[in-house]
## 1
Amino acid sequence: MGARGQPFPAGSPRVAVILPCYNEEAAIAGVVADFRAALPEAAVYVFDNASTDATAAAARDAGAIVRAEPMKGKGNAVRRAFADVDADIYVMADGDGTYEAAAAPAMIAAMRRESLDMVVGVRVPDDEVQGAYRPGHVLGNRVFSFVFRRLFRLELSDLLSGYRVLSRRFVKSFPSVSKGFEIELEMSAHAALLRIPVKEVSTRYGARPDGSKSKLNTWLDGARILRRMLTFLRLHRPLLIFGGASLGAAIASFVLAVPVLIEYLQTGLVPRFPTLMVATGVMLTAVMLFIVGVILDAQARYFSEMKRLQYLQIPGPAPAFVETDEALETARS
């Protein structure tokens, strides 16, 4: 195969497809079949998230390895999968048939070729299918993605995509606590915190098959995602939160104190002494908030460094090819 076609000596990586499911009897068999066709050497796992229909039986009949997660919520199912499944590369998708299984080999190839730890499948709605990607969800995803890029400095255009290829060291160093659909946000925040290599790949996004219903509540799950984003911000960038609060308190103190100061300069008296006391108290609060922010920021940096050391202890994704100096010289000649 030549210098650039030399296989990696360690052999092909072990690939596991993770499909968290809740009441997807109508879709799961087709999803399992599609991923088995796209990735013949991969093990396909379906984590049945307390379904009340025949999801588990349909997945098993289609050839998947079925595991049960009794605690409801996509985050709970994904956390169990990451803990129980041992692989080198993990392909995570939904069991509703909306993601393009045929795109998985290219996403895996991109991960190995560029030594990435996460490849995100950016959803491109299928023009032939109307209503595959609801306008409300599109708008919400764009807003959350924009805010995330500004706050966490990681360029992701589809923050909430559930189609991801993950390396072993990402999965085994990922301290997930999410219960529901905010799991994708948590993955993205983990990537931003550790500053790991990430890439986006466009993938087709289709409609659910007949009989399959979305479990996503636009407003409720959107509120949970927003709350989780603010929690991550408080935990990982506390100086921004407490510094902002400190600045707000300082401005309020200044607004209260200026009229009192002007009156004192004009008359030599301080008739509004309670206002001055309040302004002083608010300014002291601003100073304390800033100090708390500095302390928590130092602590957050320490924990971030500890997480990165844990991440670095796990071997990275094996590259598709190895280019030694000898092979390069052979290629040049």
## 2
Amino acid sequence: MTTTSYAIALGSNRPGRHGGPRDEVIAALAALPGVRAVSPIIVTPPLGPSIRAFANAAALVDSPLDPPAMLAQLKAIERRFGRRRGQRWGARVIDLDIILWSGGLWRSPGLAVPHPAYAVRDFVLEPLAAIAPDWRDPRDGRWIRHLRHGVDRRRPRA
């Protein structure tokens, strides 16, 4: 069986059975098999209608699973943590997303790797750059550290 690597984004902005959002992220990291690197946990403002700040982190995970099986594993962890599907970008106990996969691109119904929006989300790129600055986006070859720098430098449109 071939082992591949995944970059997984973790986020929480609601208390759960493990404690506050930071505690939920820590518990989710412990529930992920094959973790080999973990970023610092950062606190970020909410995206969308939620009013609660998020605790965000990234992890590098080694696994023999293909992307659909990894996604199923992540969704099972979310359910165990009490995640319920609801309002998009609403409050959540835990959110686990596949951001990158060492196999490159993956497209199937319900799953796109790399994550379609990760390259414009500082709350994903900042933790990811802390543990995988030299990982290249398979779509255009840019390094994570460069993507992170680009998000930092963007200016709002007039």
